[in-house]
Design goal:
The protein is an alpha/beta fold and about 300 residues long. It is built from 11 helices and 13 strands. The strands form 2 sheets. The protein has a 7-stranded parallel sheet, with helices on both faces. It has a 6-stranded parallel sheet with strand order 10-9-8-11-12-13, with helices on one face. The chain starts with a strand and ends with a helix. About 35% of the residues are buried.
């Protein structure tokens, strides 16, 4: 089968790579159509082809300053030409299926998605909005426009069925773990909070939990998309972390903490499990479900610093 795997904005290079590689190993002919990743190197293609045809110019420009204030202007100027290149490339490849990972501008992206003219599958990495109700109409229109929808939790599947998405259109596939060989057993007193630093991820809850944890070392690592609540008790590693630096932090850590208020699947949790690190997670989305299924840590109610401690 010929598969066109689309991640137009290059949102999740590790996930794209693992999926494309796994499909290629099963004998499929895979093209990953994406954009340059401005924060650092991406995995080299392994059995598949990678084509950075979406936002190709702005992606290269922003490698020097990925969080530049001009990024939205640059991407906006290049968006329509990128859509045209993407549609042309899909028609040229004539894939048996188009598998879309993310849609950066759902309201606008729906126009070209509906015109692809190929059986299309969409992976709903965040099946439900991070903010209650926000953008749900656009999501439901996406789900109506494709032949199948992949979700990463049984809870998300049931919530989408309750919202009117046909059950037969949905497929539950757990998020893969991003592995790192055979890790050493966790030890010490270091807790790690990492990934894109967003308000919904509950860093403020973790900081309040520190009041009950006088003997731990907390490392917060990642790119601050939202304002960060500064705290002198924290060892900060702000900015995008290359894989080797993240792996070193994980080796130092006794546990990874995900006190999220709302989410579905999490690449952070997938990375923690793949590196042999237990996780303490809020019971939201696929987090609690995954930790319980694989006995990978502890699950607590969201927004409860005492339970988290």
């Amino acid at each position: 089968m010929r598969v066109a795997l689309l991640d137009p904005a290059g949102t999740t290079p590790p996930y794209d790579h693992e999926l494309a590689r796994a499909l290629a190993r099963r004998g499929h002919d895979v093209d990953l159509l994406t954009s340059p990743f401005p924060f650092g190197p991406v995995p080299a293609p392994d059995g598949y082809r990678r084509d950075e045809l979406f936002l190709s110019l702005s992606g290269r420009i922003l490698r020097r300053n990925p969080r530049s204030r001009a990024r939205f202007l640059l991407k906006g100027l290049e968006y329509l030409p990128s859509v045209a290149r993407l549609a042309w490339r899909v028609s040229q490849l004539e894939p048996d299926v188009v598998h879309v990972q993310w849609l950066p501008l759902p309201r606008v992206d729906l126009r070209w998605l509906r015109r692809l003219g190929r059986p299309t599958v969409f992976t709903a990495h965040h099946a439900l909005p991070r903010d209650e109700g926000a953008g749900m109409e656009e999501r439901l229109r996406i789900f109506e426009s494709v032949a199948g929808v992949v979700v990463h939790s049984r809870g998300a599947l049931e919530e989408l069925v309750a919202l009117g998405v046909p059950r037969e259109k949905l497929a539950y596939i757990p998020h893969p773990a991003f592995t790192d060989g055979m890790p050493e057993p966790p030890a010490g007193r270091t807790l790690l909070f990492f990934g894109l630093l967003r308000a919904y991820k509950g860093l403020d809850v973790l900081l309040r939990a520190l009041d009950h944890l006088p003997d731990v070392r907390l490392v917060v690592a990642g790119d601050p998309v939202d304002p960060v609540p500064r705290d002198d008790r924290v060892e900060w590693r702000l900015g995008f972390l290359p894989d080797e630096e993240l792996s070193a932090l994980l080796r130092e850590s006794a546990a990874v903490v995900l006190p999220y208020r709302r989410t579905d699947a999490s690449g952070v949790l997938a990375t923690a499990i793949g590196h042999g690190r237990p996780a303490v997670v809020s019971d939201v989305g696929a987090l609690g479900e995954t930790v319980r299924d694989f006995e990978a840590g502890e699950v607590v109610p969201p927004g409860d610093p005492e339970a988290l401690a």
